[in-house]
Design goal:
This protein is α/β, with parallel strands linked by helices and about 375 residues long. The chain folds into three domains: about 60 residues, OB fold (Dihydrolipoamide Acetyltransferase, E2P) (Beta Barrel); about 190 residues, Vaccinia Virus protein VP39 (Rossmann fold, 3-Layer(aba) Sandwich), CATH 3.40.50; about 70 residues, no CATH class. Helices cover about 20% and strands about 30% of the residues. The strands form three sheets. It has an eight-stranded mixed β-sheet with strand order 6-17-18-16-15-12-13-14, with helices on both faces. Strands 1-2-3-5-4 form a five-stranded mixed β-barrel. Strands 9-8-7-10-11 form a five-stranded antiparallel β-sheet, covered by helices on one side.
């Protein structure tokens, strides 16, 4: 079936959302607020309908020409066709809508920290190799799209990609691998199975994130800190107070080994431990610490964490860094009676995508 609708806002998945006169709701990939579009859909009997964008009848005033000819074929970018300031506004609205719908309200919401570089900001890219092809997955497919230049990737990564193509087919590559721009400014080819730990893809915004966490730790006065999903100490070495004790935990032995090598011993005592992070972890902590830490810091993957299992009566502060608003809501909503939701700030770690990163600070109610 066909319809013509105006796009009102975007969904959590980054799709344009519009309505017809009967109140049916359409999700249109590639459409942005302000567009009037012709769509095709097949789910006639449902109120919520996935639709295909057939034509742009009237473009949104926020539309801009996408810089990449592969946009909407490659699955990497969501919003290259959308003015950057409007992207930021949309991300803030998406986040706040989800929080307010779950009655989670922060006393102090800081404006989203915009990215200083909107293109060429990625310090690593995940690639696929099949036969002579090297590239990214086509949207909603495992087919490989060969791209001459990824506009989100650092120029050195694009140069390395060109060089890999020139070496084919005689040069052996894994079916999935990463190009990583390391701290020395050189590019490494890393197999997926060899990835040491999670690394933020945006170096400049990662520094902003680290600064935010450090400012909260300095202001809350915590002495004994438990950090979960510490990786190689990315946050640890940013917030490390002048005194006290930190137990920092990650499941990756390679990441913990790297963190130990980075440690210069300045400031609070840090005990990096490789341990499985689950609901039983607190019972495996040292006897004097399992109910003794006053600050909990965590930066979990999208799956989130069993946060409630780490809460005890002496825990006064929680700093939760999240890349998944829905998971964050699930993890923290049981804490509303015990903790005040003090500060929230989003950081635009991933320009031109729907993804959002944010730092939240919860303080025990007295």
């Amino acid at each position: 079936m066909l319809a013509e609708i105006e796009i009102d806002h975007v969904s959590q998945m980054g799709h344009g959302v519009g309505y017809d006169a009967a109140g049916n709701i359409y999700f249109v990939e590639g459409a942005i607020p302000g567009d009037t579009v012709e769509i095709s859909f097949s789910e006639h009997g449902k109120r919520y309908r996935d639709a295909e964008l057939l034509s742009l009848k009237k473009p949104s005033p926020e539309r801009v020409p996408p810089v990449c000819p592969h946009f909407q074929v490659c699955g990497g970018c969501d919003w290259l066709q959308w003015e950057y300031r409007a992207q930021l506004d949309a991300k803030e609205k998406m986040l706040m809508h989800l929080l307010e719908r779950n009655d989670i309200r922060f006393r102090n919401k800081l404006p989203i920290a915009e990215a200083p570089s909107r293109l060429e900001y990625r310090n690593r890219i995940q690639l696929h190799c099949q036969g002579d092809k090297i590239g990214f997955n086509r949207r909603r497919s495992h087919e490989i799209v060969e791209i001459e230049y990824c506009h989100l990737a650092h120029p050195k990564l694009n140069q390395a990609l060109r060089e890999l193509r020139e070496k084919r087919p005689g040069f052996s590559l894994e079916p999935r691998f990463e190009l990583l721009l390391n701290e020395k400014g050189t590019v490494e080819v890393v197999r997926q199975t060899e990835a040491e730990s999670f690394l933020q893809v945006n170096t400049a915004q990662n520094e902003r994130l680290r600064l935010l966490v450090a400012e909260i730790v300095r202001s809350d006065g915590g002495k004994n800190i438990l950090e979960l999903y510490c990786g190689d100490g990315n946050l640890t070495f940013a917030y490390r107070p002048p005194e006290g004790r930190i137990i920092a935990i990650d499941a990756s032995s390679a990441a913990i080994e790297k963190a130990r090598k980075r440690d210069n011993g300045t400031g609070a005592s840090v005990d990096f431990r490789q341990m499985r992070i689950d609901g039983a972890l607190r019972r495996r902590l040292p006897a004097g610490y399992r109910d003794g830490y006053d600050t909990l810091i965590l930066d979990p993957p999208r799956a989130g964490a069993d946060l409630a299992s780490f809460v005890h009566n002496k825990l006064m502060h929680i700093i939760y860094v999240s890349c998944s608003p829905g998971t964050f809501v699930r993890d923290v909503r049981s804490l509303k009676k015990e903790f005040a939701f003090e500060t929230l700030q989003a950081v635009d770690m991933f320009p031109h995508t729907r993804h959002i990163e944010f730092v939240s600070y919860l303080k025990r109610l007295l």
